[in-house]
Amino acid sequence: VLSEAIEAFRRFAVHGDTRATGRDLHGKNWSKLCKDCGVIDGKSITLTDVDIVFSKVKNKSSRTITYNQFREALSELEIFKMVEGKSPIYLESRAVASPTVSRLTDTTKFTGSHKERFDETGRGKGKAGRVDLVDKSGYVSGYKHAGTYEKKVQPKPQQKPM
């Protein structure tokens, strides 16, 4: 298996470059190697994951990786393969709740039209919160005494004299 890995590294290291020595692998050829060998499956390992691993293992000022860095990159990809569906970005970073974020996302403090988008519990109303629903009551929107006209106009029942 080791000789196959060395051979694959050398073949892809010289791919498309007539001046290549076969000792260093460029990022473009690294991506091609991962695609051609079936490492990238589009679900647990994507092209972005492969590029991030390449950047992680290469030297800071270099554009290529050596065979030892190549083996390190393959072991990194195996870790990502074990945690299916997770991108390396999600494995390395965690969200930290800050007071600023919690204040900005507290729906009880929303005002104006934004307040109308959430119910009493703070959950979004969905489309009903974003779209103006047509009110066919005959009153102007925002009228406080809606529905009181009928009570005023109806004749009061007359009492029979005794």
Automatic annotation (TrEMBL):
GO terms for molecular function: tubulin binding. One of its GO terms (biological process) is microtubule bundle formation. InterPro entries: EF-hand-dom_pair, TPP/p25. One of its GO terms (cellular component) is microtubule. Belongs to the TPPP family. This is Tubulin polymerization promoting protein. It comes from Electrophorus electricus. The gene is TPPP.
